[in-house]
Design brief:
CATH architecture of the largest domain: Up-down Bundle
Order of helices and strands: HHHHHHHEEHHHHHHHHHHEEHHH
Number of domains: 2
Distance between the termini: 27 Å
Number of strands: 4
Strand content: under 5%
CATH class of the largest domain: Mainly Alpha
Length: about 500
């Protein structure tokens, strides 16, 4: 009896195949949407104090201006799946690029609070579109043996975008002396922070105009010759791949009544709920608290406010670096094992942070934004500060190597073809709403209960995420997209086969 092909060996062999190199190039190009996603969601961090000063915003309105983009992202993600099924993947990418470009320029030109909020919502819609289109396109263009690695490029691009935003904000701040100071042509530095976003938006738009359409969308629209030309670039036997896609489309037609996301459990199919809960757990472990509110933690362990950017940059670089762990292992070890390891690591590290902050006390320090005034600062005594700092970075490592990239991989591949784009849009929208909930609730939890309680809540969600993955999340390593129909009832994947 011959042995079944080993998906990990197939993945290694695929990397050097000429067709696979083209698939990698296309996946990298599509992942630029993830870069914009990371850049645009983080660039406001360097500008927020200058915006508060420019528009005389109170803390509540300031927080809303920052977070409203997340609601726009939920709207963009929800709409993207439906638009992609009508217009195609690349046309929808182009729409996201236009949204990025226009919002970057108009946010930098904003003169009133209402138009600033409007452009932030537009920016969020572009982010939401990119968050859906990149994993969907990468999954549909990638060979099964490489799909996990290539799908992980989405998270790598997001982390690079976050780092680029932090770096460009700091460079512009240093050049002007302060974000509120004028820089070039009499325009304040904080406005230039947004203008810079127009550059990657233009790059993304050019990419959307030049990369080929998804072969599955082309076959669905009856453009078989075009689909064969695309598949000839990335697989050995394009006609066989088209036949597989056609069989899947015919099966979808026979089951047209099942083409909806509607199901018996709370109105949605079980596999859609799995995608939604994966998205919610990814956010409810509190990863964005580390990135959005890191200054509080770093000052608590003894860093000055001026050093907070350096420490945040180190954390951002760590997040980028550990993503390569996922890229290296996802097609060898599998999705579920890595997620389970990540859940355990996040539970322990978040638990240590919650424990450390039970020892915190409040001290009075000079307020850097108001000369002569004092402000409260959380302080950790002795070794508790070091414990919290190590635990925070360990949390970033475990998240960045597992839950960060692998949720996007699973969302891009786990849904049956007939509902993939729409289901991915719903799951991504849930992720953005969860992001908004965590980002908005943390300041209130911090003021009301101190840092220990919110980190304890995130610990509980990390613990629950382990059991959710163990009991509900299917393994998709080595499976063809055409074989995803029954993964929620059968976890053992078929051996990898040739073709996309």
């Amino acid at each position: 009896m011959s042995e079944a092909p080993d998906p990990s060996k197939a993945a290694d062999a695929a990397l050097s195949h000429p067709h696979r190199r083209r698939a990698i190039a296309l996946a990298v190009a599509a992942a630029v949407g993830g870069f914009l996603f990371g850049f645009d969601s983080s660039v406001i961090n360097g500008a927020v104090k200058a915006i508060d000063k420019e528009f005389t915003l109170n803390s509540g309105l300031s927080g809303f201006v920052v977070a409203v983009a997340l609601l726009g992202s939920a709207l963009g993600a929800w709409a993207a799946g439906r638009l992609a099924d009508r217009w195609g993947r690349t046309n929808t990418m182009l729409l996201g690029a236009v949204m990025f470009l226009v919002s970057s320029i108009l946010t930098g030109l904003a003169w009133t609070v209402p138009d600033l909020i409007l452009w932030r919502i537009m920016s969020g819609i572009g982010i939401g579109i990119a968050s859906v289109m990149a994993p969907a396109y990468i999954a549909e263009i990638s060979p099964a043996a490489l799909r996990g690695r290539l799908g992980s490029l989405q998270q790598l691009a997001i982390t690079l975008g976050i780092f680029a935003a932090l770096l460009s904000d700091q460079l512009l701040r240093n050049a002007a002396g302060d974000p509120s100071n004028e820089l070039w042509w009499g325009v304040e530095a904080w406005r230039w922070m947004f203008f810079v976003g127009a550059v990657p938006a233009l790059v993304y738009g050019v990419i959307a105009l030049t990369i080929p359409e998804s072969p599955r969308f082309l076959v669905q629209k009856g453009r078989h010759d075009d689909a064969e030309k695309v598949l000839a670039q990335v697989v050995d036997d394009p006609r066989r791949a088209i036949a597989q896609i056609e069989d899947n489309i015919e099966e979808d037609k026979r089951n047209a009544a099942q083409s909806s996301l509607k199901g018996p459990r709370f109105g949605l199919l079980p596999i859609v709920w799995i995608g939604i809960l994966l998205s919610i757990f990814q956010q409810f472990v509190g990863i964005n608290v580390i990135f959005y509110y890191s200054t509080t933690l770093w000052q608590a362990v003894g860093f000055s406010q001026d050093d907070s950017f350096t420490v945040s940059t180190i954390t951002s670089v760590t997040n980028v670096a550990v993503t390569f762990i996922a890229i290296a292992l996802v097609d060898k070890v599998g999705r579920r094992i890595l997620l389970l390891i990540g859940s355990v690591g996040m539970t322990v590290s978040l638990g240590l942070m919650a424990l450390a902050f039970t020892q915190a006390y409040i001290t009075q320090v000079p307020d850097p934004d108001h000369i002569g005034k004092m402000m409260d600062q959380t302080t950790l005594p002795g070794g508790w500060g070091t414990t919290a700092l190590i635990a925070a970075n360990a949390f970033v490592v475990f998240f960045g190597a597992t839950w960060g990239p692998l949720v996007w991989v699973l969302l891009g591949e786990m849904f049956p073809n007939r509902i993939r784009a729409a289901a991915l849009g719903v799951a991504a929208a849930a992720q953005w709403i969860a992001n908004f909930a965590i980002s908005q609730s943390f300041p209130w939890l911090l003021d009301s209960f101190g840092a220990s309680i919110p980190y304890l809540i995130y610990t509980i969600f990390a613990f629950l995420s382990f059991w959710f993955v163990l009991l509900k999340v299917p393994e998709t390593k080595g499976m063809e997209l055409e074989d995803m129909e029954g993964i929620h009832v059968e976890r053992r994947p078929r051996a990898a086969t040739a073709g996309a």
